[in-house]
Amino acid sequence: MNTRMQYLISIAIVGGLSTGALAGTQVIHQQGRAFSVESITVKKGEPITFLNDDSVPHNIMSASAGNEFNLGSQPPGSSTDVTFKQSGDATVICAIHPRMKMTVKVLD
Ligand SMILES: [Cu+2]
Question: Ligand 1 mean position to 66 CA, how many Å?
């Protein structure tokens, strides 16, 4: 493979990544022991990224029927994608901080 070919391939990879970011997995931030939004709407099967950009660990989870998950304790700086399988409203909480609560509205 020549140098020009390698160059074009690296451009394609970077381009693909930025396009993906624009098309947009939605990101929920966790700062100051709070979610960045009170509610978010997502299509069934599309991931949401839960990013712990706080200075303390969080344990994001949901007990809503059909959308149960538990990410366990996540240290600052970690992020995890969650896909919601059941349409309707899912309540997402932090098991460590009772005041952290948000609603994910899942559309068919
Ligand atoms: Cu928390």
Answer: 22
